[in-house]
Every structure is written in C-alpha cells, then in structure tokens.
Amino acid sequence: RKVLVTGANGFVAIHIVDNLLKNGYFVRATIRSESKEAHLKKLFSKYGDKLEFVVVPDITRDGAFDHVVDGLDAILHTASPFQYDVKDPEELIRPAVDGTLSVLKSAIKAPGNIKRVIILSSSVSVGLLRFNHEYTEEEWNDSAIDDVKAKGKESNGLVKYMASKTLAERAAWELYRKHKASLPWDMVAINPPYIFGPNLHEVDKPENLNTSSKRWFDLFFNPIFSDQELYFAGNWVDVRDVAAAHVAALEKEEAADERIVIAAGPVPEQEFIEAAKRAAASLGIKGVQTGIKKYDPANVKNSVIYSSKKRERILGIKITSVDESVRDTIADFKERGWIP
Ligand code: NDP
User: Fold this and answer.
1) What band does 70 get if pLDDT is binned at 50, 70 and 90?
2) What confidence tier does 238 reach under pLDDT thresholds 50, 70, 90?
3) Exposed/middle/buried for 241, CB within 10 Å: 0-12, 13-18, 19+?
4) For an engineered disulfide with 168, which of 68, 100, 106, 162 has Cβ 3.0 to 4.6 Å away?
5) What interface predicted TM-score (ipTM) does this complex get?
6) What Rg value do the Cα atoms of the chain yield, rounded?
7) What residue spans define the domains of the chain?
8) Across the chain, which distance is largest between two alpha carbons, in Å?
9) CB within 6 Å of ligand 1 — which residues?
C-alpha cells in the first residue's frame, strides 16, 4: 500500500516515514525543495524504490497536490510551521489552514483508491492552558483563536501557533464533513502534545533544531529556565510513539472520523532534567544542568492533562518512558558531537 507523507523531512514526519517503511508500506514523500531529498534518500537507502519524492514548493496553492495524489491508499498530512517567533499570526495560520485544505481538496478530487486521510494536528487544538483539568477530544481551543482575533500581532507566540493548529483542524473537519457522503475515504486527526525523542532529520547544529527538540536541548544544557518554569508539568510524548500512532491510525477501522490525543502524561520539567542526569551518568556525559537546587515534587502545582481513553481504546500503542526517551535523545545529541 502506498501512503503520502507531506513535509517528510520534518522531525516528526521522518519518524513516520521510518515506521511506514519498516511496516512494508510504499511511501510518497513531499518536500518543499529538492535539497531536502538527499538526506532522506541516504537514510532510507535500503528501501530502494519503496520511497519516492515529489517537490511541492508551495503547499498553500490550490491544486498544489493534484498531481501528487494519484495511486495512493492513504494520506498523512504533517507539513505545517511550528514556531513561536513570528510577528504576523498569518505567517503560521495561512500555511497551516491553506496547506491542510489544499491537501484535502486534492484528495477530494482524486480518483479512487484513497481510504483514509490523517491530519497531524496537536493537543493545542484541544486545549492547553486550563491546568489540572483533564481535556478530552470533545474540546476545542477556541480561546486561542479569539485571542489572536482580538490582539493580532500582539498575541503571544504560543497562542498564535495554537490558533494556527486549531483553525487548520477545524477547517479540515468542516471541509471533510461537507463532502463526506460522496467520499471513498474517512479522516482521522492525531493530537499530540510536545513531541520529543531522537532526531532522524537533517540538523547541523542545536540552534537549528525543530522547536520541541530545541526545548529539550535547552532544558538539559542551557540554564535559561526559572525554578517556576521547571516546576511546571507540561505534557509530552515520544516521537516514535507518535509515528506508531499514525501507522495504527491507518490500520484501525475504529479510528475513522476520530480526533485522538496521543500523550504520555504530564511531567514536571525538572523530572526530565533528573532523567537526563541519570542518562548522562550511564552515557559518560558531563554538563547536564542542575535545574532546581532543592527539588520538591510537592511544589508541582500546574499540570497539563489529557484523557488517554481514546488512544487506549482505539490505537492501543505502547508509550515510551521518560527515561528511555531522554536517554535515547541525549545519546543522539552525543553522537552528533553537540554535548557542551
Ligand atoms: P519541523 O519544523 O521539524 O517540520 C515541519 C515540517 O513542515 C517541515 O517539513 C517543513 O518544511 C514543513 N513546513 C513548515 N512550514 C511550512 C510552510 N510554510 N509551507 C510548507 N511546509 C512547511 O516540525 P515538527 O516535525 O515538530 O512538526 C511537524 C508537525 O507536527 C506540525 O504540523 C506540528 O504542528 C505538529 N506537531 C508537532 C509537535 C512537536 O512537539 N514537535 C507537537 C504536536 C504537533 P521545511 O523543512 O521545508 O521548512
């Protein structure tokens, strides 16, 4: 079976490609420019012509994917900007929304075989800032959209990103529902929180890491976080689990028309540092920062919580532990010669 992966060179997407190829799928990968092809080709050379490439320079253009969707069984759409440092929120919203709609419109027009379209959304389109509340997939982060509408460029970077993901996922479901009766395919949204883990994609230095991986690099090696920030329990998931979730979502009939949060649970930032210290000791690495000097777990007040019921019921994938994920990530940083 042949699956399209958009933005295949990204941190998350390349793990999805890896998992698909390991599971015997043919993969058609879209990238923005030809220069992104060589790394993927080399990394997956053993799979030969099971991996093919199409360059789509502007995903927001109507019809951009028309020539890409022939002969596919499924589509996984991941390409979307994940950054906080933009001024105009439209820099995030336009590619997120128009890119998603452009993929879906081409899938709607496509002849025949497509059975499922999976959108890589985010838990931020469910909600993030109501701490200690257990979010479920019934919820939508409309407050981020309202905030950006009201404040525009003055909105916080995280909120701009949250609005882009919420608007894109809402637009996807709206278009899908409008055409659903006549479509041969159904749709799934995967909604992960912060994704961490070893990098397979092409990165030359830590400064150029994708947003979430850079966060772990800084958390372990740059003492830029306040104690208050380190006592915050954000939610997270390992990138390999997200990849496995995509493949499971392709294969499980019951995933049809569902949004599914895939999250490992809230973890205080300091606990990631503690895991990094343990990993560093076993890997013979120095330089992991101390973080909070006298860490007391009782001081953790704010947690970001998502229900795992749907993930367990429908996808049933395993969840990687903090220690395993942190160790593998640090081992990867070490191999790249990045440990300060
Ligand atoms: P990366 O930055 O590593 O990858 C982003 C991918 O999207 C790249 O292929 C990139 O292409 C492409 N892309 C970015 N902006 C545009 C644009 N304007 N037009 C076309 N393509 C674009 O990020 P991640 O792998 O972390 O993110 C991938 C997806 O996962 C995103 O949809 C993100 O919202 C979602 N996600 C990520 C989480 C995380 O913690 N990492 C958490 C939850 C969801 P290029 O390399 O050419 O710029």
Assistant:
1) very high
2) very high
3) buried
4) 100
5) 0.99
6) 20
7) 2-202+236-265+305-320
8) 62
9) 7, 9-13, 32, 59, 78-82, 95, 99, 120, 122, 165, 192, 194-195, 210, 212
